[in-house]
Amino acid sequence: MKKYLLVILVSVVVFSLSLNGQVKLKIGHINSQELLAAMPASDSAQKKLEIIAADHELVLEEMSVEFNKKFEAYRTAMEAGTLSDLARATKEAELEDMQNRIATFEQTAQQDIQQKRVELFTPVQETALNAVNEVAEENGFTYILDTGIGAVVYTSPDSENILPLVKVKLGLQ
């Protein structure tokens, strides 16, 4: 409810200011996802992230293969009835420990990938944001709306798409 009241209040203020001629709004829009996709640094960051993920996947696969071999040996020994109670308990504890290590590795790997994603993409996003800000200042825009994140439900024909200007600023065209 408060959100709607705030939107209505801001709309009334902007509308009344524009009627009085005190504020001239120049609104632009950009699809940030399209901009990021066009940046070579984004491709490079994605490839590095894929290599890291593949390395983690390989280690996880090796751990799983080792676990499956030990489990199969345990199951075979259980079916043959060749394990004493002590040997059975030891093997079960070993298998449980391996399962826990696999789960811990998987969770840690996901966290590492997320951290690397932030580390690799933050500079790319900052470069894009800086270029958007420079284009907005150079061209006298009051607001730039990002249509790439789904926050804008309507773009007026009076709103200018600044993506081409930002691409020129970044040397992408």
List keywords for this structure.
173 residues, mainly alpha, three-stranded parallel β-sheet
Distance between the termini: 45 Å
Number of strands: 3
Q: Describe the sheet with the most strands.
A: 3 strands, parallel
So how many helices? 5
Mean model confidence by pLDDT = 86
> pLDDT under 50 segments (min length 5)?
1-7
What number of domains?
1
Beta percentage is 5-15%
Given the helix and strand composition, which structural class is it?
mainly alpha
Descriptive report:
By secondary structure, this protein is mainly alpha-helical. The protein has one domain. Helices cover 74% and strands 6% of the residues. The chain contains five helices and three strands. It has helices at residues 2-20, 32-38, 40-80, 85-138, 163-169; strands at residues 27-30, 143-146, 160-161. The chain has a three-stranded parallel β-sheet. Helix 4 crosses helix 5 (163-169). The longest helix is centred in the middle third of the chain and has 54 residues, at 85-138. The two termini are 45 Å apart.
